[in-house]
Design brief:
alpha/beta, five-stranded parallel sheet, 11 helices, 12 strands, globular, binds nicotinamide-adenine-dinucleotide
Amino acid sequence: MKILFYNTKPYDRYWFEPMAKDYGFSIHFVEMRCDEETVSLAAGHDAICIFVNDYVNADMIDKLHEMGVRAILLRCAGFNNVDIRAAEGKLHVLRVPSYSPEAVAEFAAAMLLTVNRYTHRAYGRTRDFNMNINGFMGMNLYQKTAGVVGTGKIGQAMIRILKGFRMHIIAYDPYPNPSADVQYVSLEELMKQSDIISLHCPLTDDTRHLINQKTISLMKKGIYLVNTSRGALIDTEALIDGLLEKRFGGVGLDVYEEEEGVFYEDRSNEIIMDENLVRLTSFPNVLITSHMGFFTKEATQAIAQTTLENAYALETGKELVNEVLPGRS
Ligand code: NAD
């Protein structure tokens, strides 16, 4: 099987190269993102492998189909970047539904602790021998209320971590998990009662801009908000307005609405044209990271393993257990 890997960085080779050899796959890494301009590179391959900030729309699916490409291998869990309906009957879309929920949940907790206790800024100050702690007063998590939106694999891992701080946990999920040891409330109640909110739901038509002017107005003053799910869960302009009105204690964003083409790249020598992103980075109580919640040895190994197992199942005609089908994933 010949697979074209789009949007690759040196670290992608770490697991994929040796594992693909074991499977006997021929893999070809390119740095370019998958988009309308680069889709033609897929000619001569059986499958393409893409990541969170690549996209495949209906036109591209037709082109891939015409070129004889049989599958899109997503080396991630989310699939909002592929037109699943357009792919039906033309291309198989296979994903990695779960690799290490703990990797993302631990990162969400790290973001919460960092924005709350300013360790990122304290590090900068002490390196300059500025030992002044003015402006770094945080909040105890102990006995505070944490609101978890989405109680799937990552949300549940986050709940386990937050319980370690002896927080009171409430959750919202339209499909509550009966085995989750948590008190479910409505989204409105969660917004009103929480001292911190962590987002762990997928991006869908229902969840786009879940955090908006209205939901922000319900939140307690001084709320901490962490988003490690997908950027468009938050209406960025409403968030900026809320920050300017000093409604937030702190905000941790591992994902951002307009992250495509910016995250994962070194743009340090360029003029950044995205004014909202520049505005967000200017707030002392906002921490932005570049969609790296998944980035542990264990998670990346599991991603490579499942991605190549998906390809192997396709090649050998086995059941495609990780296939994404319209309305069924
Ligand atoms: P999951 O499918 O196990 O859980 C998602 C949960 O969200 C489900 O329980 C579902 O019922 C719930 N949900 C659906 N619609 C909802 C709504 N309208 N409101 C609230 N909850 C809703 O997924 P997961 O593995 O826990 O991953 C969650 C998200 O994390 C993914 O969709 C992905 O976007 C994101 N993610 C980010 C990274 C990263 O590196 N930052 C890595 C992996 C996943």
